[in-house]
Write a structure and sequence with these properties.
By secondary structure, this protein is of the alpha/beta class. It has 16 helices and 19 strands. The chain has two domains: about 130 residues, Roll (Urease, subunit C, domain 1); about 280 residues, TIM Barrel, CATH 3.20.20. Helix 6 crosses helix 7, helix 10 runs parallel beside helix 11 and helix 14 runs antiparallel to helix 15.
């Protein structure tokens, strides 16, 4: 028998395959807690051919059939690489579905301002916040943006992230926004990690511009240029009191729909303005933050297939309560995801740390947190090859943990829980 090209992982501990039911749909309610349907016990192996999962089966059987030559002392023969998991748990690649990956400058001084009692809005009005980052970012060249973006993407991979949604939003003018999207595409093209671009021209209002003038530019100039460029998969709007109103958000999103671009929105971060309900009405793939959304809005999101994406890293760094209703979502069968919200204020690229906040500070079951960091966010990506699972024919993204238990993915906030990362069938990270 000829040996297949690919990677053979033997002697696995628990394998969180996440493959129960229809994998194009998120897991909700008690299904997010169903370990029996989504975790294989120790003793399995995984065959990867080219870029996809091929076989999940008994480790000894796969060993004898495909790598009888392997005695544990070597890892490669011909085109087949053997990885000995040594009883360690396996989880899917982590999907970070909300990041602000590209920006320049430094806003570390804002911590002191927050400690002195200034709000996020007050800091922005004093010349800090998004506007400060915009000033720093506009002057960056494409090569500089690509360089810092690649560094950050590689840092995320070190802790198991294999897919990253990345927003523009620190340009706030057509040329600068297009350059940010171009940088995201360039990083995606030159790295194994999958970067998925979102246009966030409606992140704030640029200084020195009339509100009405910039709103007109967004719809009549920026958006058509973004559509013609053809990079952005989604549009986003910072729909929040003091930034973009619900009506302004709706106008931008409906204009984007005319260009065939769907939306994922910032909503209800600081107060309930009905942003999540609007996201549901507009058919947005996700409503992100959603910290203050009403029960009615959450139900509307569920009814309309809009994913609630919680970003606990942001209230954590802002010193706010971590009180998003994660367990309430499970009780009510509302789909939800977790993401980092990496940005100049929230410099967290580790999805395991976000999972730790969700479990230790918010009472979420570790396996449910893993569902919210893998399968659930993948359902918002409009890419059937990326489904946050370890099932046959899906893209081969996975992590080998230090722990024998899948729960170990998020229980070491000061240490990296990842031993090995595989993206699209390629071993890209060895933290041994």
């Amino acid at each position: 028998m000829s040996r297949p090209m690919g990677v053979l992982i033997l002697n696995c501990g628990e394998v969180a395959h996440m493959g129960s039911g229809d994998t194009t749909l998120p897991l909700v309610g008690v299904d997010m807690l169903d370990r029996g349907a989504n975790i294989l016990p120790a003793g399995h192996g995984i065959m990867i051919q080219d870029t996809k999962f091929d076989i999940l089966g008994d480790s000894e059987s796969l060993h004898s059939e495909y790598a009888p030559w392997w005695d544990g002392s070597e890892e490669k023969s011909g085109d087949l690489t053997v990885v000995d998991a040594k009883g360690k748990a396996i989880i899917p690649g982590l999907v970070d579905c909300h990041t602000h990956l590209l920006w320049g400058g430094d806003r570390s001084s804002e911590m002191r301002l927050r400690q002195e009692g200034m709000t996020y809005r007050q800091i922005a009005e004093a010349g800090g916040g998004i506007a400060k980052t915009v000033r720093s970012t506009r002057g960056m060249s494409l090569s500089d943006l690509c360089r810092i973006g690649m560094i950050r993407a590689n840092q995320a991979v070190l802790t198991g992230t294999t897919v990253i949604e990345a927003k523009s939003g620190y340009g706030l003018e057509t040329g600068a926004e297009l350059r940010l999207l171009e940088a995201i595409k360039a990083i995606d093209d030159s790295s194994l990690v999958e970067l998925l671009p979102t246009w966030l021209g409606a992140h704030d209002f640029p200084q020195g511009r009339q509100r009405s003038e910039y709103l007109e530019e967004l719809v009549s100039s920026q958006l058509p240029a973004v559509a013609e460029q053809g990079i952005a998969k989604w549009v986003d709007v910072f729909c929040e009191e003091g930034w973009y109103t619900n009506d302004e958000t709706e106008n931008i999103v409906r204009a984007s729909m005319e260009h065939g671009i769907s939306s994922r929105l910032h909503v209800d971060e600081f107060e309930d303005s009905g942003g999540l309900a609007l996201a549901a009405e507009l058919g947005s793939v996700s409503g992100d933050h959603a910290a203050k959304s009403s029960v009615e809005s959450r139900q509307a999101a569920s009814d309309n297939g809009t994913m609630q994406t919680f970003l606990p890293g942001t209230p954590y760094v802002l010193g706010k309560p971590l009180d998003s209703p994660l367990n309430q979502c499970i009780e009510n069968n509302w789909a939800f995801s977790l993401a980092t919200d990496y940005n100049p204020n929230c410099r967290i690229l580790s999805m395991p740390f976000i999972g730790n906040l969700a479990t230790t500070r918010m009472g979420l079951d570790p396996f449910a947190a893993l569902v919210a960091a893998t399968r659930n966010p993948s359902t918002t990506l409009d890419d059937p090859s990326i489904n946050g699972t370890i099932v046959e024919s899906s893209r081969a993204d996975l992590n080998i943990l230090w722990s024998q238990s899948v729960d170990g993915w998020c229980q070491t906030p000061g240490e990296n829980p990842i031993v090995t990362t595989i993206i699209g069938g390629s071993i890209v990270n060895l933290n041994r």
